[in-house]
Amino acid sequence: MTHVGNDIVDLCSPYVTGKSRDKKFIQRVLTPEEQKVVLNAANPDSLLQVYWAARETAYKVIVKTNPDVSSAPRRYRVLLDSPENGRKLRGVVKTPAADVFITVLRHRGFIHCSGATLFCAAGKIIYGIEKITDHAPPDFCRSSEAVSCLARTFAKEKIAAALSVNADNITITKTDGRNEALFPEVYINMRKTDIGISLSHDGRYVAFALAF
Description:
It contains 5 helices and 11 strands, in the order βαααββββαβαβββββ. By secondary structure, the protein is α+β, with helices and mostly antiparallel strands. A 5-stranded antiparallel sheet has the order 1-5-4-3-2. A 3-stranded antiparallel sheet has the order 6-11-10, with helices on one face. A 3-stranded antiparallel sheet has the order 7-8-9, covered by helices on one side.
């Protein structure tokens, strides 16, 4: 199975605006080199969230096979091909356990990152992003079960279309890992599959990443 991770950040979240001016936060989560890049950027708040989403994605990938790995942000070094330019960025996150290859999509409303430990696998990840304003109110606290359910629904629709199966026969459920971690897994006709999956949501958006 290819383990994947993804993370989405709603750029309209009250936790995003002006965050680059929080010196304690910057120093806690970014390396000195990354701090310089962010603080000199034309849009430092947006670029800060690129680095944050990259770290979150990498941790979600690595923890599935290394449950004791550190989650300390400064131990995750993000190397991007061109931090300031382009709508789609590619790069690698140097984690305490292994490298995670990432793709970052920058949009005026959100930042989305997906990744995997193998470069070839990272390039084949299928991801989806849905704006959910019409389905549910923004959830900036990231705690709504209704929003999590929507993320699973959208992922099931993508899997069903890709495999030509009925979405009603697909179940996405979280199973216990070590250290009380919960990871989503895909079942078709009540049989566990090797489909790699990651779900995320923030504010007005839900997202998923899949590896078949």
